[in-house]
Design goal:
heterodimer; A: Four Helix Bundle (Hemerythrin (Met), subunit A); B: 38 residues; mainly alpha; rod-shaped
Chain lengths: 224, 38
Amino acid sequence: MSNRIPTAFVVIGALLLLAGSYYGLAISPPEEHMGDVQRILYVHVPTAWTAMLVLTWAFICAVVFLIRGSWKWDHRLDAAIEMAVVLCLLLSVQGAIWAKPTWGVWWDWDPRLTTVAVLLTAFVGIAALRHFVEDPMKRATWSAVATVIGYVDVPIVYMSVRWWNSLHQKQSTFSSVSREFLIPWFTNFAGLLLVVGAVLIVRARTASLRLEQEIAPPLLEEVA
Amino acid sequence: MNGVLNGGWGFVWAAYIVTALTIFGYAARTFVQNRSAR
Protein backbone atom coordinates (compact mmCIF):
# COMPACT_ATOMS: atom_id res chain seq x y z
CA MET A 1 0.00 0.00 0.00
CA SER A 2 1.38 3.41 -0.99
CA ASN A 3 2.41 5.86 1.72
CA ARG A 4 1.80 8.89 -0.51
CA ILE A 5 -1.16 10.27 1.48
CA PRO A 6 0.55 9.88 4.91
CA THR A 7 3.69 11.51 3.45
CA ALA A 8 1.58 14.45 2.23
CA PHE A 9 0.06 14.71 5.74
CA VAL A 10 3.56 14.89 7.26
CA VAL A 11 4.67 17.60 4.82
CA ILE A 12 1.54 19.75 5.40
CA GLY A 13 1.77 19.10 9.16
CA ALA A 14 5.44 20.15 9.20
CA LEU A 15 4.59 23.38 7.35
CA LEU A 16 1.81 24.16 9.83
CA LEU A 17 4.13 23.43 12.79
CA LEU A 18 6.75 25.69 11.23
CA ALA A 19 4.20 28.52 10.75
CA GLY A 20 2.69 28.07 14.26
CA SER A 21 6.13 27.99 15.88
CA TYR A 22 7.27 31.08 13.95
CA TYR A 23 4.13 32.94 15.12
CA GLY A 24 4.61 31.71 18.70
CA LEU A 25 8.31 32.59 18.84
CA ALA A 26 8.49 35.78 16.77
CA ILE A 27 5.07 37.45 16.54
CA SER A 28 3.11 36.55 19.69
CA PRO A 29 3.89 38.92 22.59
CA PRO A 30 5.40 37.70 25.88
CA GLU A 31 2.83 36.78 28.53
CA GLU A 32 2.15 39.24 31.37
CA HIS A 33 3.66 37.15 34.20
CA MET A 34 5.57 34.26 32.57
CA GLY A 35 7.26 36.44 29.95
CA ASP A 36 8.91 34.57 27.06
CA VAL A 37 8.85 31.23 28.91
CA GLN A 38 5.12 31.07 28.16
CA ARG A 39 6.04 30.36 24.51
CA ILE A 40 6.78 26.78 25.62
CA LEU A 41 3.01 26.34 26.00
CA TYR A 42 2.55 26.72 22.22
CA VAL A 43 4.06 23.25 21.87
CA HIS A 44 3.16 21.82 25.30
CA VAL A 45 -0.62 22.40 25.10
CA PRO A 46 -1.03 21.00 21.52
CA THR A 47 1.03 17.97 22.60
CA ALA A 48 -1.30 17.46 25.59
CA TRP A 49 -4.44 17.74 23.42
CA THR A 50 -3.00 15.33 20.83
CA ALA A 51 -1.92 12.86 23.53
CA MET A 52 -5.44 12.83 25.00
CA LEU A 53 -6.92 12.22 21.52
CA VAL A 54 -4.48 9.39 20.77
CA LEU A 55 -5.22 7.78 24.16
CA THR A 56 -8.96 8.01 23.41
CA TRP A 57 -8.31 6.48 19.97
CA ALA A 58 -6.40 3.63 21.68
CA PHE A 59 -9.37 3.08 24.00
CA ILE A 60 -11.79 2.97 21.01
CA CYS A 61 -9.52 0.52 19.13
CA ALA A 62 -9.29 -1.71 22.22
CA VAL A 63 -13.06 -1.78 22.77
CA VAL A 64 -13.83 -2.44 19.08
CA PHE A 65 -11.21 -5.21 18.98
CA LEU A 66 -12.71 -6.87 22.07
CA ILE A 67 -16.20 -6.71 20.53
CA ARG A 68 -15.41 -7.64 16.91
CA GLY A 69 -12.11 -9.51 17.23
CA SER A 70 -10.94 -7.91 13.95
CA TRP A 71 -7.17 -7.80 13.47
CA LYS A 72 -7.23 -4.36 11.83
CA TRP A 73 -8.35 -2.89 15.15
CA ASP A 74 -5.44 -4.61 16.89
CA HIS A 75 -3.04 -3.07 14.36
CA ARG A 76 -4.56 0.36 15.02
CA LEU A 77 -4.28 -0.28 18.77
CA ASP A 78 -0.62 -1.27 18.39
CA ALA A 79 0.07 2.03 16.61
CA ALA A 80 -1.89 4.09 19.15
CA ILE A 81 -0.17 2.53 22.18
CA GLU A 82 3.31 3.35 20.84
CA MET A 83 2.26 6.88 19.83
CA ALA A 84 0.71 7.44 23.29
CA VAL A 85 4.00 6.50 24.97
CA VAL A 86 5.95 8.90 22.73
CA LEU A 87 3.51 11.78 23.33
CA CYS A 88 3.21 11.27 27.12
CA LEU A 89 7.00 11.15 27.41
CA LEU A 90 7.35 14.30 25.29
CA LEU A 91 4.63 16.01 27.33
CA SER A 92 6.50 15.25 30.58
CA VAL A 93 9.82 16.54 29.20
CA GLN A 94 8.23 19.76 27.85
CA GLY A 95 6.49 20.22 31.22
CA ALA A 96 9.76 19.79 33.11
CA ILE A 97 11.49 22.36 30.85
CA TRP A 98 8.64 24.81 31.55
CA ALA A 99 8.51 23.99 35.30
CA LYS A 100 12.16 24.78 36.02
CA PRO A 101 12.01 28.55 35.27
CA THR A 102 8.42 29.01 36.53
CA TRP A 103 8.16 26.71 39.58
CA GLY A 104 11.91 26.53 40.31
CA VAL A 105 11.97 22.71 40.05
CA TRP A 106 12.09 20.22 37.17
CA TRP A 107 9.54 17.93 38.79
CA ASP A 108 6.98 17.99 41.59
CA TRP A 109 4.66 15.25 42.83
CA ASP A 110 1.74 17.46 41.95
CA PRO A 111 -1.61 15.71 41.11
CA ARG A 112 -1.44 16.55 37.36
CA LEU A 113 2.19 15.48 36.98
CA THR A 114 1.69 12.36 39.08
CA THR A 115 -1.38 11.20 37.14
CA VAL A 116 0.46 11.75 33.82
CA ALA A 117 3.41 9.73 35.20
CA VAL A 118 0.97 6.91 36.09
CA LEU A 119 -0.45 7.07 32.54
CA LEU A 120 3.00 6.94 30.98
CA THR A 121 4.03 4.00 33.18
CA ALA A 122 0.80 2.13 32.34
CA PHE A 123 1.27 2.51 28.58
CA VAL A 124 4.98 1.66 28.72
CA GLY A 125 3.84 -1.52 30.51
CA ILE A 126 1.24 -2.27 27.82
CA ALA A 127 3.83 -1.69 25.06
CA ALA A 128 6.20 -4.07 26.91
CA LEU A 129 3.41 -6.65 27.23
CA ARG A 130 2.87 -6.53 23.45
CA HIS A 131 6.59 -7.03 22.95
CA PHE A 132 6.93 -10.08 25.19
CA VAL A 133 3.72 -12.06 24.53
CA GLU A 134 4.33 -14.34 21.54
CA ASP A 135 0.82 -15.65 20.85
CA PRO A 136 -0.86 -13.02 18.60
CA MET A 137 -4.39 -13.56 19.95
CA LYS A 138 -3.33 -13.45 23.62
CA ARG A 139 -1.17 -10.38 22.88
CA ALA A 140 -4.06 -8.56 21.21
CA THR A 141 -6.66 -9.47 23.83
CA TRP A 142 -4.49 -8.79 26.87
CA SER A 143 -3.24 -5.45 25.54
CA ALA A 144 -6.81 -4.40 24.64
CA VAL A 145 -8.01 -5.20 28.18
CA ALA A 146 -4.99 -3.42 29.69
CA THR A 147 -5.66 -0.37 27.49
CA VAL A 148 -9.29 -0.16 28.69
CA ILE A 149 -8.05 -0.33 32.31
CA GLY A 150 -5.21 2.16 31.66
CA TYR A 151 -7.60 4.62 30.01
CA VAL A 152 -9.40 5.09 33.34
CA ASP A 153 -6.53 7.43 34.25
CA VAL A 154 -7.23 9.81 31.33
CA PRO A 155 -10.29 11.57 32.83
CA ILE A 156 -8.43 11.61 36.16
CA VAL A 157 -5.52 13.44 34.47
CA TYR A 158 -7.96 15.96 32.97
CA MET A 159 -9.87 16.57 36.21
CA SER A 160 -6.83 16.44 38.55
CA VAL A 161 -6.34 20.22 38.46
CA ARG A 162 -9.98 20.72 39.55
CA TRP A 163 -10.28 17.91 42.10
CA TRP A 164 -7.07 18.60 44.04
CA ASN A 165 -4.88 21.57 44.93
CA SER A 166 -2.43 21.67 42.08
CA LEU A 167 0.59 23.75 41.11
CA HIS A 168 -0.43 23.14 37.50
CA GLN A 169 -2.86 25.76 36.20
CA LYS A 170 -6.45 24.86 35.33
CA GLN A 171 -7.62 24.49 31.70
CA SER A 172 -7.90 27.82 29.88
CA THR A 173 -11.06 28.92 28.08
CA PHE A 174 -11.43 30.91 24.85
CA SER A 175 -12.47 33.96 26.87
CA SER A 176 -9.39 33.78 29.11
CA VAL A 177 -6.83 33.55 26.29
CA SER A 178 -6.12 36.31 23.77
CA ARG A 179 -6.14 35.79 19.97
CA GLU A 180 -2.33 36.17 19.72
CA PHE A 181 -1.97 33.09 21.94
CA LEU A 182 -4.75 31.06 20.29
CA ILE A 183 -3.28 31.33 16.75
CA PRO A 184 0.00 29.46 17.50
CA TRP A 185 -1.85 26.98 19.76
CA PHE A 186 -4.33 25.91 17.08
CA THR A 187 -1.87 26.09 14.16
CA ASN A 188 0.56 23.81 16.02
CA PHE A 189 -2.32 21.55 17.10
CA ALA A 190 -3.48 21.13 13.47
CA GLY A 191 0.11 20.42 12.33
CA LEU A 192 0.72 17.91 15.11
CA LEU A 193 -2.59 16.15 14.39
CA LEU A 194 -1.65 15.68 10.72
CA VAL A 195 1.83 14.32 11.51
CA VAL A 196 0.53 12.03 14.28
CA GLY A 197 -2.37 10.87 12.08
CA ALA A 198 0.08 9.95 9.30
CA VAL A 199 2.32 8.09 11.73
CA LEU A 200 -0.66 6.15 13.13
CA ILE A 201 -1.69 5.06 9.60
CA VAL A 202 1.82 3.94 8.61
CA ARG A 203 2.51 2.24 11.98
CA ALA A 204 -0.77 0.28 11.76
CA ARG A 205 0.19 -0.88 8.23
CA THR A 206 3.56 -2.06 9.60
CA ALA A 207 1.77 -3.97 12.38
CA SER A 208 -0.40 -5.67 9.74
CA LEU A 209 2.66 -6.67 7.66
CA ARG A 210 4.44 -8.00 10.75
CA LEU A 211 1.43 -10.14 11.71
CA GLU A 212 1.24 -11.54 8.16
CA GLN A 213 4.90 -12.57 8.43
CA GLU A 214 4.39 -13.92 11.96
CA ILE A 215 1.50 -16.23 11.12
CA ALA A 216 2.57 -17.14 7.58
CA PRO A 217 2.86 -20.93 7.11
CA PRO A 218 6.47 -22.18 6.87
CA LEU A 219 7.89 -22.60 3.35
CA LEU A 220 8.10 -26.17 2.03
CA GLU A 221 11.93 -26.11 2.08
CA GLU A 222 11.88 -25.12 5.75
CA VAL A 223 9.52 -28.05 6.57
CA ALA A 224 11.69 -30.50 4.67
CA MET B 1 11.39 41.12 41.98
CA ASN B 2 8.40 42.42 40.02
CA GLY B 3 6.42 39.19 39.57
CA VAL B 4 7.46 38.84 35.93
CA LEU B 5 9.83 36.19 34.63
CA ASN B 6 12.65 37.66 32.58
CA GLY B 7 14.70 35.76 30.00
CA GLY B 8 14.33 32.02 29.74
CA TRP B 9 14.88 31.77 25.96
CA GLY B 10 17.21 28.82 26.55
CA PHE B 11 14.30 26.87 28.03
CA VAL B 12 12.04 27.92 25.14
CA TRP B 13 14.51 26.73 22.47
CA ALA B 14 15.12 23.50 24.40
CA ALA B 15 11.37 22.72 24.44
CA TYR B 16 10.97 23.40 20.69
CA ILE B 17 14.07 21.40 19.73
CA VAL B 18 13.06 18.42 21.91
CA THR B 19 9.56 18.52 20.38
CA ALA B 20 10.81 18.65 16.77
CA LEU B 21 13.40 15.89 17.30
CA THR B 22 10.88 13.60 19.04
CA ILE B 23 8.00 14.04 16.61
CA PHE B 24 9.96 13.99 13.35
CA GLY B 25 12.48 11.42 14.62
CA TYR B 26 9.66 9.03 15.52
CA ALA B 27 7.83 9.75 12.25
CA ALA B 28 10.99 9.01 10.22
CA ARG B 29 11.58 5.77 12.17
CA THR B 30 7.99 4.67 11.52
CA PHE B 31 8.25 5.25 7.75
CA VAL B 32 11.63 3.44 7.57
CA GLN B 33 10.27 0.45 9.55
CA ASN B 34 7.27 0.27 7.19
CA ARG B 35 9.56 0.19 4.16
CA SER B 36 11.71 -2.58 5.62
CA ALA B 37 8.62 -4.63 6.66
CA ARG B 38 7.39 -4.75 3.04
